[in-house]
Write a structure and sequence with these properties.
With 106 residues, the protein is an alpha+beta fold. Helix content is 15%, strand content 35%.
Length: 106
Amino acid sequence: MRKIFLFLFVSLSSLLHSQNQVNGIIVDANQDPIAFASISLLQEADSTFVCGTNSDENGRFLINDVPIGKLLRISYVGYMTQYVHPSADMRIEMKSETLTVGDVIS
């Protein structure tokens, strides 16, 4: 009986600390995949870096064993950085960022 309770306790505590797998695809406004976007897993409380990856040539990414209470930061040059809560089978649409350059004075 004690072994059963111990097994249940260990199983439940591991479920509470881990979300298993976060995966998805990064796309632009035309729904075309964005290859090699930067994906960072951060602590939600203070934005401390936990781990990171890049999307592949098809815009897909995968992070295993993601603890609960984390945040994803997705960034790519020319697009606005996004912060989202991780989940399985994500589809993240990046929005274009317009940059203006001031006058050049020589």
